[in-house]
Amino acid sequence: MYYFYILKNDEGGLYFGYTSDLKKRIEQHNSSTTRTTAGKHWKVIYYEAYYSQSDAKHREYSIKLRGNAYLQLKRRIKNCVAEAD
């Protein structure tokens, strides 16, 4: 399985990514071994599971473009983002 995921930090920042091992990846983000997320505490607020790595990677790419896919997802999970505070 592969996962597209969204993390939120204590300052309200969001991070989008994909991985084959969600638990390990979150631990990496929180242990400051990942340059882009170092120094902050992150928690998973949303994820999607895929059988194909290319599907998970494509989902991450489409969300990072901040186009329609991002706006649709943002509307769909707005309560998840708010409740994660």
Structural notes for this entry:
- This protein is α+β, with helices and mostly antiparallel strands.
- The protein has one domain: GIY-YIG endonuclease (3-Layer(aba) Sandwich).
- It contains four helices and three strands, in the order E-E-H-E-H-H-H.
- The chain has a three-stranded antiparallel β-sheet with strand order 2-1-3.
- It is globular and about 30 Å long.
- The N and C termini lie far apart (28 Å).
- It comes from Candidatus Yanofskybacteria bacterium RIFCSPHIGHO2_01_FULL_41_21.
- This is GIY-YIG domain-containing protein.
- InterPro entries: GIY-YIG_endonuc, GIY-YIG_endonuc_sf, UPF0213_domain.
Q: Radius of gyration in whole Å, from Cα?
A: 12 Å
**Count of alpha and pi helical runs:** 4
Averaged pLDDT, please? 86
Note poorly predicted spans.
Answer: none
Helix content: 40-55%
Question: What is the fold's blueprint, element by element?
Answer:
Blueprint (H helix, E strand, L loop, with lengths): L1 E8 L4 E6 L2 H9 L11 E9 L2 H12 L3 H9 L1 H6 L2
Antiparallel strand pairs: 1-2, 1-3
Protein name: GIY-YIG domain-containing protein
InterPro entries: GIY-YIG_endonuc, GIY-YIG_endonuc_sf, UPF0213_domain
Pfam families: GIY-YIG
